[in-house]
Amino acid sequence: MFSSHQSLKRKTPCPGINREEFIEHLVEEYYTTTNVEAQEQVTANLANFAYDPINWEYLKKKEAAQLFLELLRSNNDRLKLHGIAGLSNISLDHEISLHLSNSVNFKIIQELLLNSQNTEILLNCCTIIYQLLNNQQGERGDILSRDTVKRIQHINSQYKNNKRLANISELLLLDFCRRYEFTEEPANSSFFKICLSTTPAAQQKPIKLVKIFSQQDLDNFSRLTGDPNPIHSNSIPEESRMVHGAFLNAIIAGLIGTHFPPGTIVLEQSFKFPKPCRINVECEFLIRTQNERKISTVTYECKQGDNVVFEGLAKLLISNNKLGK
């Protein structure tokens, strides 16, 4: 999708096109022409250039990013669209991301989000907000103001038939607005405030289960899985017997299935077994949520006394229902 310097060199015919000079020419043409159609064509080209990271340094050097911001103040919807699309494309650049998270600059984007009815403009506004939050640029409370969250909620409910807009607004709500709630105060006032949960996901109470594995448990699991390994059987001394690693993972899967919303699925896992897990010894299973997003990360472990016998990490695709407790 993106170009490398080597591939550009191969694709560009001799004597070639100097991209930096061409971008500079486009910016100059926008400011010097009085023809609106020419301005629309120029800004569309600049927004397309912003799609490829190889052009970002040129665009910054020639102040095209600042031009994109200026376009958001235009009365011309096409110019607004080209401006917000260009910013959306280039907002993954760290320097630009910091620039956009500045309260003055972000206010321009926020005003466009609140006032525009153009679905493509709204899509790009939501994309920028998601990328700023995902890259942890700026204060979350400044970006997710009361009006911004309410607007995203409205977009999510109003544009269900627009899959792209519905998806990005839903991701924003699930990934970053889950712990925001609206409360009225005083009782007879329509004033709303946004309250952020005082308990981040990583600090919430872990899911806990205490279990003792018996030989009967191991025999049943061996029959179910067809695993005849004698280290799980009573053919060896009890102190040498080991609980199946897959059995430990199955317990974690059961906890996920019963404590997260119905329909939640495991996307990927990584785990290890630092110590053997013995039978007839108390095991403590713990699952901790690291973040509450559409795709959430959880860590888990199983301990016998002070020994960690099983630990890992999983990414879960959370269903649309509220997270279980």
UniProtKB/TrEMBL annotation:
This is MaoC-like domain-containing protein. It comes from Musca domestica (House fly). Transmembrane segments: none annotated. SUPFAM superfamilies: ARM repeat, Thioesterase/thiol ester dehydrase-isomerase. Signal peptide: none annotated. The lineage of its organism: Eukaryota, Metazoa, Ecdysozoa, Arthropoda, Hexapoda. One of its GO terms (molecular function) is 3-hydroxyacyl-CoA dehydratase activity. Residues 204-296 form the MaoC-like domain. Pfam families: MaoC_dehydratas. InterPro entries: ARM-like (IPR011989), ARM-type_fold (IPR016024), ARMC7 (IPR042462), HotDog_dom_sf (IPR029069), MaoC-like_dom (IPR002539). Gene3D superfamilies: Hotdog Thioesterase, Leucine-rich Repeat Variant.
